[in-house]
Amino acid sequence: MNDLAQLKSELIALRERLEAVERRAQAAEDHHAIANLQRSYGYYVDKCQWEHVADLFAREAVLEINGRGRFIGHERIRQYMRHFGPPKNGLLMNHLQLQPVIHVNPDGIHANGRVRALMMVGQMGDHAMWGEAIYENEYLKEDGVWKIARLKAWQVLYTPYDKGWGRETSPLLTEFGDFPPDEPIEPYPVFPEYFCPPYHYRNPVSGRE
């Protein structure tokens, strides 16, 4: 191989390495952006900032929380959020977003995430609950920005704070009587029954489903 051919081969190899590094860097940035998107959702819900919450969703997004049914499209999701009303004194709505497991698709515009929510929900002088949910979400890079394409929150448990899950738990929360969903969803077991919301990913070591 002459010097010119060798130089050309080295440039091609260098270009391929650079492209691989750029893809990895972009994937890392996407992972970080999606994690921040999900954390932002939790902070906005905490303070009943429903317009901010709705802004996080894609135009054709789908929302499923507990057993309340399926709400389809950005405007329906905004209506759903507004249904909860403004914040008021004595209301606690903490939704801690924990343990994110995020996978960005090779196309760079779709992703999935599994996240745990630990909740403190209640009204001072009336009621107070501990709650837990598992999110299995889909994300979409729309107009160059990561948004929530499907938020599916699987209820794990709700329990009075003063009794705890060792004494009393609530059944699956079903649809609002005055705000019906676009589509119903099949009910599923909640604690104390055993149920594992399906994973979007395989075991990262064994590859087992």
Short summary of the structure?
The chain is of the alpha+beta class. It has helices spanning 3-46, 50-55, 74-82, and strands spanning 57-65, 70-72, 91-104, 110-123, 127-142, 145-160.
Task: Explain the overall architecture.
There is one protein chain. Strands 2-1-6-5-4-3 form a six-stranded mixed beta sheet. The chain is of the alpha+beta class and 209 residues long. It is built from three helices and six strands, in the order H-H-E-E-H-E-E-E-E. The chain has one domain (3-160): Nuclear Transport Factor 2, Chain: A (Roll). The mean pLDDT is 94. It has helices at residues 3-46, 50-55, 74-82; strands at residues 57-65, 70-72, 91-104, 110-123, 127-142, 145-160. 28% of the residues lie in helices and 34% in strands.
| Poorly predicted residue ranges | none
Number of strands: 6
CATH architecture: Roll
Please write the CATH class name: Alpha Beta
* Number of structural domains: 1
Topology-level CATH name? Nuclear Transport Factor 2, Chain: A
Shape: elongated
